[in-house]
Amino acid sequence: MTPSSQPAVRAAVALAVTVAAIGLAMLVLGDRAYEWVKAVHVIAIISWMAGMLYLPRLFIYHCDAPKGSQQSETFKVMEQRLLRIIMNPAMVIAWVLGVWLAWKAQFFTSGWFHAKLTLALLLSGVHGYFSAAVRAFAEDRNTKPTRHWRIVNEAPTLLMIGIVILVIVKPF
Ligand code: HEM
Predict the structure, then answer these.
(1) Measuring from each residue's beta carbon to the nearest atom of ligand 1, which residues come in under 6 Å?
(2) Number of domains the chain is built from
(3) How many angstroms from the chain centroid is the CA of residue 161?
(4) What is the spatial distance between Cα 117 and Cα 111, in angstroms, rounded to a whole number?
């Protein structure tokens, strides 16, 4: 297996396990499955957000480490592990469970859900951008300055605030 196919395999495994877990929860828990799936959705979101908030912070420190130094190589390992082991599977699980919750509770016609989905898509776009940055840092190709990562660092926080208000308050 090539190293580039490994993240796709991990994402596929996370997807398969999540779908199987939903099926099992529906069978065993019946009417209570919704609450349990929602709890796991929130756990996945916390894991995903932990990475989305920490990864750009690592990029800021990485910018200051000279290329080829021991410190720079350590940051590469930290960034890759955070992305592949925590963030990618957590994002897949959050999406699958979120879509199932929306289908089960028939939220697909609600205004707040459309807005939440838009912000979740933007958050996933930022995830993709961070993923590309991890590859660039790994190959010593990053050209963006510390200031850029300090600004980008705020995007996940702002999106998360909007998403949580939308799903809890459901203002429209
Ligand atoms: C990735 C796509 C996502 C989808 C499709 C999705 C969908 C949903 C749905 C349908 C619910 C159930 C709402 C209810 O029962 O009232 C829910 C709950 C929740 N979601 Fe998401 N979600 C997604 C991502 C996120 C993100 C990125 C966050 C936070 C940053 C988040 C935070 C929450 C929270 C805190 C709850 C619990 C709300 C409550 O119990 O009142 N979700 N989500």
Answers:
(1) 38, 41-42, 45, 49, 94-95, 98-99, 101-102, 105, 107, 117, 120, 123, 160, 163-164, 167-168
(2) 1
(3) 15
(4) 10
What is the chain's alpha carbon radius of gyration, rounded to the nearest angstrom?
18
CB 65 within 8 A of CB 71: yes
**The model scores a pTM over 0.70:** yes
> Residue 89's domain is classified under what CATH number?
1.20.1420
Give per-residue pLDDT as tens, 54-73: 999 999 999 999 999 999 99
User: Which domain does 103 fall in, by range?
Assistant: 3-169
Alpha carbon separation from 98 to 45, 59, 78, 92, 152 (Å, rounded): 10, 29, 28, 10, 25
